[in-house]
TrEMBL record:
CDD domains: CuRO_2_BOD_CotA_like
Similarity remark: Belongs to the multicopper oxidase family.
Name of the protein described by the UniProt record: Multicopper oxidase domain-containing protein
Family annotation (Gene3D superfamilies): Cupredoxins - blue copper proteins (2.60.40.420)
InterPro entries: Cu-oxidase-like_N, Cu-oxidase_C, Cu-oxidase_fam, Cupredoxin, TAT_signal
PANTHER family per the UniProt record, alphabetical: BILIRUBIN OXIDASE (PTHR48267:SF1), CUPREDOXIN SUPERFAMILY PROTEIN (PTHR48267)
Positions of the Plastocyanin-like domain: 74-185, 382-486
Taxonomic placement: Bacteria, Bacillati, Actinomycetota, Actinomycetes, Pseudonocardiales
Species assigned in the record: Amycolatopsis thermalba
SUPFAM superfamilies in UniProt: Cupredoxins
Length: 486
């Protein structure tokens, strides 16, 4: 990434209604989401009036081969208004890709947008040339094949844009979709399936008066100067919660168990999800990298950007006709609500949640051959008077390398967050957090001042990968670093 291009964040975009300023690193809406609230100029709908859409499952053009065109399309997100999205196959979220463990999958992406793109399979154990390195650009009018060996357990993955300097605005415009890996071990479990297995992509967006996405880019064309205006350097928080691209939707459910694959695909917002009325709460069966060893019950789920929770909700605990609201305990006003379920009828249900889910061997500190520390904060580097977001005080550089782990080893990494919360994502290498029941993860949620010890397993491929903050405005402002697996 070329620092000479980045005369960043010197102006405030005209016509945007903002709540406060986060330029000092403080959060302007809650203490739990780094960023500034951008208020919509468009009239937002009443919550729970729009049906929940479910992204279509993409059909292969031949076994193991898929094709996706990235293009702009006008869609109705807010009732009565049109929004131009940048979508995979022109839809937001993009089509869901379903594949099986160990079966190599090839996805050919054609770029019909007017800007370069990069595709990253988030959570994929992927060779470096197909991982979506932020400088491996697909130019407008070009196409690229991404090859995914998928030698990993069943899990809820997702694919999204990863273009250097512009990940935030390009994901915000719609470039995100689910990729589900299935395997025999998961198929043998009596979990809810079919229409009772539902992916939920939660995002927050703001809208201009004409219904278009409002995002405070320095250059809205995304072809010139990167970055956001200076009020939003800590992150962009929308005031409209979307689930699968619909504002505060409603879903009719049977009085039965449902499996929900929950993804926080927001740029900067964290959520603490809860049910009202509480009922049985959430039974977590999986996380970022697949099934847990055993189910874990939660009354609330705190989920940072890019994290996934695979949960079962048993609606048989409610009466037909009862309404169950999914709340966000970290939100205010409209952002305190996410969606609603309406229990319609009693129904047969042959699903169950077994006591054992998967064979997850816990790692220990004794497995680690090397220990390293990484601090994620604002400071240590400046450009044109703007303080950058850094890793160990250094901004991202294509040539910089902060670690060289050996293939087949485990390392202990101490990750520290300063200034504001930082959700940290490590490409390629799954990790465990000692002493927790989270199973294998690829993203860890760090609050301001938090430290996490993660045991990272480097397997599969040698080459250069990145780790970075998944607050996308922080990532675009250089909070990313290379490591090379030797």
């Amino acid at each position: 990434m070329n620092l000479s291009r980045r005369g960043l964040f010197r102006v405030t975009a005209a016509g945007l209604l903002v709540a406060g300023c986060a330029s000092g690193g403080s959060n302007t809406e809650t203490e739990s989401s780094a960023g500034t609230l951008l208020r919509s100029a468009a009239k937002l709908p009443e919550p729970f009036t729009v049906p929940l859409p479910v992204p279509p499952v993409l059909r292969p053009v031949r076994p193991g081969h898929y094709e996706i065109t990235q293009r702009a399309a006008d869609v109705e997100i807010l009732p009565g208004l049109r929004t131009t999205v940048w979508g995979y196959d022109g839809i937001f979220p993009g089509p869901t890709i379903e594949t099986r463990r160990g079966q190599t999958t090839v996805v050919r992406h054609r770029n019909e947008l007017g800007v370069p793109v990069v595709v990253h399979l988030h959570g994929g154990r992927t060779p470096p040339e197909h991982d979506g390195y932020p400088l491996d650009l697909v130019a407008p009018g070009a196409a690229r094949e991404y090859v995914y060996p998928l030698d990993q357990p069943a899990a809820t993955l997702w694919y999204h844009d990863h273009r250097a300097d512009f990940t935030g605005p390009q994901v915000y415009r719609g470039l995100a979709g689910f990729h589900l890996i299935r395997d025999d071990e998961e198929d043998a479990l009596p979990l809810p399936r079919g229409e009772r297995e539902v992916p939920l992509m939660i995002t927050d967006r703001s809208f201009a008066a004409d219904g278009s996405f409002a995002y405070p880019s320095v250059d809205p064309s995304l072809l010139g100067e990167p970055g956001v205006t200076d009020d939003f350097v800590s992150g962009v928080l929308g005031d409209c919660i979307l689930v699968n691209g619909a504002p505060w939707p409603v879903m009719e459910v049977d009085a039965a168990r449902y499996r929900f694959r929950i993804l926080n695909a927001s740029n900067a917002r964290r959520y603490r999800l809860a049910l009202d009325p509480p009922g049985p709460g959430f039974v977590q069966i999986g996380g970022d990298q697949g099934l847990l060893a055993a189910p874990v019950r939660h009354d609330q789920l705190q989920i940072a950007q890019a994290e996934r929770y695979d949960v079962v909700i048993d609606f048989s605990a409610y009466q037909p006709g009862q309404e169950v609201t999914l709340l966000n305990r970290l939100g205010e006003d409209g952002t305190a609500r996410v969606m609603r379920f309406v229990v319609t009828r009693r129904a047969a249900d042959d699903s169950a949640i077994p006591d054992r889910l998967a064979d997850v061997r816990p790692l220990s500190r004794a497995d680690a051959v090397v220990e390293r520390e990484f601090t994620f904060r604002r400071g240590g580097a400046e450009h044109h008077g703007m303080t950058l977001w850094t890793v160990n005080g250094m901004p991202f550089s294509a040539d910089g390398v902060v670690a060289e782990p050996a293939l087949g080893t485990v390392e202990l990494w101490r990750l520290r967050a300063q200034n504001v919360p930082h959700p940290i994502h490590i490409h390629l290498a799954p990790f465990q957090i000692p002493g927790t029941a989270h199973g294998w993860k690829d993203t860890v949620d760090l609050g301001n001042g938090d430290q996490a010890e993660v045991l990272v397993r480097f397997e599969g491929y040698r080459g250069k990968y990145v780790m970075h903050c998944h607050n996308l405005e922080h990532e675009d402002m250089m909070m990313m670093a290379n490591f090379v697996v030797r």
